[in-house]
Amino acid sequence: MRLLLVEDEKRMAQALVQILKSEHYQVDYCADGISGMEAVESGIYDIIILDVMLPGKNGFEIVKEARREGIHTPVLMLTAKDGLDDKVAGLDNGADDYLTKPFMARELLARLRALVRRNINSADGALSFGDITLESGRLTLSCTDTGQSVRLSEKEYRILEYLIANQGQILTREQLAVKIWGFENEAEYNHVEVYMSFTRKKLIFAGAKTVIKAVRGVGYELRWENV
Fold it and tell me: In CATH, what number does 127-224 get?
């Protein structure tokens, strides 16, 4: 799960990045509204944590502009104020949820899990497709038909997570490279093929009928071959 944090308070940002990474989120960080808006417009994030008070462009402006551009990534807004007007303004401009500073780490993580469930229509926070289920807390892949489970590396987990979130679509190698590794250097695209091979082996080990199909000249697609 790739997450963008836009927060200008350095100490808070450092603490949040550490907490989020410990929960297996891949985190990118921006310290101002201008660079934050540019990152939001990339469209590569699964969730955005957005502070209201930012230099250059405030959080209300960012989320409003993002929604106007058709970017529907879930946004959790952070505000130092507990006034109702700020909360209403954030939600009216397109935010999905908000937290008032100071807050506990466990509340932040719970809000993020709720946004993930809402975004992928999962009732319990686990990701499912065909006969497989992913558990983020333990980085495991389970096959519901065989009962077999296998541990995934973070990259393998993110590949399957991205494919499940975009089920029914063909994802290009470029999309996967940027989403999982965060680079666009063509020399590095072989990483995608290597980790795709690793991930396929994990699916086979679990006895899953869900497979990753390569569409020649296009990319990869997740399919359930229930025959």
Answer: 1.10.10.10
DSSP one-letter code for 178:
I
User: Rounded to an integer, what distance in angstroms lies between the CA atom of residue 71 and that of residue 59?
Assistant: 15
* Sheet of strand 140-143, all strands in order from the earlier edge strand to the far edge: 127-129, 132-135, 140-143, 149-151
CA distance 181 to 209: 27
Query: How many of the other CB atoms lie within 10 Å of CB of 213?
Result: 12
pTM of the full structure: 0.65
Q: Which tens digits make up the pLDDT trace of 55-105?
A: 999 999 999 999 888 888 899 999 876 666 666 777 788 888 888 888 899
Report CA 202 to chain centroid distance, whole Å. 21
Give me the CATH topology for the region 2-120.
Answer: Rossmann fold (3.40.50)
Residue-range domain boundaries for the chain: 2-120, 127-224
Residue for token pair 């892949």: 141
CA quadruple 77, 80, 82, 83: dihedral, nearest 10:
-90
Give the confidence band of 17 by pLDDT, cuts at 50, 70, 90: very high
The answer to whether 15 touches 21, Cβ cutoff 8 Å, is: no
CA distances from 30 to 8, 33, 139, 174 (A): 8, 8, 27, 23
The arithmetic mean of pLDDT across residues 113-123, rounded, is 66
- E strands along the chain, which residues? 2-6, 26-30, 47-51, 75-79, 97-100, 127-129, 132-135, 140-143, 149-151, 210-215, 219-224
